[in-house]
Amino acid sequence: MSTYLNAFIVGDFGAVEGEDVGSKTRFRVLTRMDADFLDAATYAAGVGPTVLKAFEDYFRIPYAMEKMASRALKASPPTNEFESLSLRRSQDMAGIPDLGSSATENWGLVTYREEYLLVFREASVAEKRHALRTIVHELAHQWFGNLVRETSQPITVSR
After folding, report:
1. Segment 124-137, tens digit of pLDDT
2. Domains plus CATH for the chain?
């Protein structure tokens, strides 16, 4: 993975779980802990998993990003700090207020300026289409640019 694709966010975010569309990938949309913003995240939580599954089916390559996820503790506590963690295919999309760019295709955590991800109840069809176009574009990067990218080996040209 290219280092510029590594991302994490710190903040007071709420999560809207994506719909199960047959992909084995957990899908969440993260946004401000506010009822209106969480409601506005439901559009992306509905279309995001469908887009991801469509790419998996079309390319015949499953979404590949596994992230650490905490696992529910068993009756006996873990013997070490890593026993309660597991890897799981997961894709998060986060609406960030005042993000410098419109969106960034970080692997497993795509960040969006809020107006490019969230669709409020009074949104027009054009605004929904714009959000969908941005979501499709950024999720396509999970295959083009993240999974398939230029080699890190130097290229030598002989004459």
Report:
1. 999 999 999 999 99
2. 3-74+81-140 (1.10.390.10)
Over residues 30-61, the pLDDT tens digits come to 999 999 999 999 999 999 999 999 999 998 98
Please, which residues have CB within 8 angstroms of residue 101's CB and are 6 or more apart in sequence?
A: 113
Distance CA 126, CA 69 (A): 36
Residues with Cβ within 8 Å of 28's Cβ and at least 6 positions away in sequence, in order, are 15, 16, 17, 18, 45, 90, 91, 92, 93
Please tell me the pTM assigned to this model: 0.80
Is residue 66 annotated as part of the catalytic site, yes or no?
no
State the catalytic residue, choosing from 56, 105, 114, 138: 138
Q: For residue 68, list its beta bridge partners.
A: 87
CB 1 within 8 A of CB 146: yes
CA distances from 159 to 44, 154, 156 (A): 51, 16, 10
Pairing of strands 109-113, 85-96: parallel
